[in-house]
Amino acid sequence: MKKALIVLDKEWLELRLQPTLLLATLILPPLITAFAIAGFFAVGKISGPIPQGGPLPPEFASLAPREVAQAIVGRQFSTLFLLLPIFIPSVLASYAIVGEKRERTLEPVLATPIRTWELLLGKILAALIPALAITIASASLFIAGILAFAVTDRVRDIVVTPGWILAVLVDTPLLALIGVALIVVLSSRVNDPRTAQQISAVLIVPVLGLLFGQLAGVIVLGPALALGIGVILAIIAAGAVWAATRLFQREVILTRWR
Amino acid sequence: MAHAIETHGLTRKFDGRVAVDGLSLTIETGTVFGFLGPNGAGKTTTVRMLAALIAPTDGDAIVAGHTLGVDDTALRGSVGILTEQPGLYDRLSARQNLRYFARLYDLEPARADSQVERYLHLLELWDRRDEPVGTFSKGMRQKLAIARALLHEPSVVFLDEPTAALDPEAARTVRDFVKGLKAEGRTIFLTTHNLPEADELCDSIGIFQRRLLRMGSPGELRAGLFGAGTVVRVVGDAARYVPVVRALPFVREARSDGGTLTVELDDPDSRNPDVVDALRAAGARIRYVERLQHSLEDVYLRLVGGHQ
C-alpha cells in the first residue's frame, strides 16, 4: 500500500506540472456549478407562462411557471454531476497510463520491487480522488445554491432528491471506477490519451439516457432506482476492474502492450 | 555468494516461438559479462527474465542470491536495470525522477535524498538537478537512467546498450563509470552491439543468438576460433615467402597481403625465432614481427554469421 501512495504522490506531482491539463480538467466542475446556480437563480425571476416543448413529469403538474422553470433547469444540471466523475478521471487516467506507456517509463517502474496491484491502485486513486473530490464539492455547492435560490420548497424537493444524492454518492464513484478501468483496458491497445478518452466516453450514454428519461417523466430517480443502478454498476465495475487487472500484469504490459 | 548469476536451461517461448532456448551460464561475482548478439536474438528477453520482469517458460536461474520465481519482488530489489529506452519522466526534474525511483526501491526518504545527491554528483548532473528532464541531451538522459539503476546499490546491474547513440565523450564517461562499478565489486551484465567496448570492458563474453553460441574471455574466444599466429612485415612483396614458411612443419597456414605475411601456428612464443630464421635464410628483410590479433568483431561475425 505504501508504494501505491508513492505512485499517487508522483502522479499528482506530474499533474501539478501540467497546469493546462489541470486547469482544463478541474476548473470545469466549479464553472458548470456556478453556471447552473446562476441559471437556476435567473429562471426563478421569470414571471408569466413559460413555453413548453413537451409533456412534463407528473410531479411538475401543480407547479407555478417559475417553479417549473427552476425545476427543469435544476434537474438538467443535477444530472451533470453524474457525468463529471466519468469525464474527469478518464482524462487523468488516460494521461497517467497511456502517457506512461508512450514515454516508455513503465518498464523501469516494473523493474522495481513494486507489485503490479500497487502500481495499478496508485494510478486509479490518482485519477479517482481528485475527480470525486471536485464532483462532491461541486455537488455540495450546487445543493447550497438550490437551497438558497429555490423560489419554493417544492422546487428544492424536486431537484435535490434522496435518489439524486444517493446517485451522486454511490453511482458516480462506480461510474468513475468503470471509466478508469476502461482506460486501463484501452491503454493496452492505444498510444494516444485522447483516443482512450474518446472511446471511454461511451460511458456517458446511459447517464444521458437517465437525464432524458427523467425529463420525459419516464424515469423517476428515487432511492430504490439509484441503489438498483448502483448494484448493476458495482457488478460492471467488478468486471471492468478484473479485466483491467488481467491486462495490467507486468508480463502482459511488457510483451503485449504495443 | 559464489556466482552472481547462474542459469540452467533458461527458456522462453512466445506463442510457440522460441525466443531464448535453454540458456545455461554462470557469471562470477564482481565481473563484467558481455552479452552479444544480433537484433532480435533474444537478449532483451533474457535480461527481462533475469531481472524478474517476465517469467521463463522453462529452466531456472539464481540472480543475486535469489531464485527466479520464488521471491521475484526481492530479486527486483537486489538488481538494477538500465532498460533499452531510458524511460524518464520528462516533466519531472532529474532529482524528482530519481527520488521517485529511490522510494520505489524502498529507500527511506532521508536515505533516498542522500543517494540521489550522491549519484547526481557522480554522473555530473548535480548542476542540472532541478531542471526538467525533457530539456536534457541524450547523454544526460542516459546517465540519469544509469543513476536510477544504481540508487539502491544493487549487487547485480543489467545495462542494456548503455552507450548506444552517445557521443564519444559521453560514451567514454559511461564506460569509465562501468569500470568504477566493477571496481566496487558489482557484477555487470552488459548487452551491447559495440564490440570494441565489450572487448575493453568485459571479463567474459557470451555470444548469443536464441541460444548461447560460445562463452569465454575475449582472449579465449579469439584463440578458440582462430588459433594463434604471427604477422611478419617484410620489405617488398611477401608472396614469395609464403612457400618458405609453409614448408615449416609447425606452421598451419600462411598467406600474404602486399608486404604482410600472416602465419598461423600453435606456439608463436617458441616458434617465432624459427620463422624469422627461415625468412632471413630466404633473403627476406624484416621490418616488424607482431602477434596476430583477431578483433572481437571477427569472432562475433564468424559465430553469428556461421549460425545464420
Model description:
The complex is a heterodimer of chains A (258) and B (308). By secondary structure, chain A is mainly alpha-helical. Chain A has one domain (2-45, 60-256). In chain A, 78% of the residues lie in helices and 0% in strands. Chain B has 308 residues and is α/β, with parallel strands linked by helices. Chain B folds into two domains: 3-222, 3-Layer(aba) Sandwich (Rossmann fold); 229-291, 2-Layer Sandwich (Alpha-Beta Plaits), CATH 3.30.70. Helices cover 38% and strands 29% of the residues of chain B. Chain B has eleven helices and 14 strands. Chain B has a six-stranded mixed β-sheet, with helices on both faces. In chain B, strands 2-1-4-5 form a four-stranded antiparallel β-sheet, covered by helices on one side. A four-stranded antiparallel β-sheet of chain B has the order 12-13-11-14. The model of chain B has no long low-confidence stretch (mean pLDDT 89). The A-B interface holds A 3, 6, 10, 13-14, 17-18, 103-115, 250-251, 254-255 and B 14, 48, 51, 53-55, 73-74, 76-77, 81, 83, 85, 87-92, 96, 100-101, 103-106, 132, 145, 148.
Count of helix runs of chain A: 12
Mean pLDDT of chain B: 89
The largest sheet of chain A, given as strand count, sense and whether it forms a barrel, is:
none
Largest sheet of chain B: 6 strands, mixed
Mean pLDDT of chain A: 83
Gap between N and C termini of chain B, in Å?
37 Å
Question: Helix amount of chain B, in percent?
Answer: 25-40%
Q: Work out the helix count of chain B.
A: 11
Q: From the alpha-carbon coordinates, what is the Rg of chain B to the nearest angstrom?
A: 24 Å
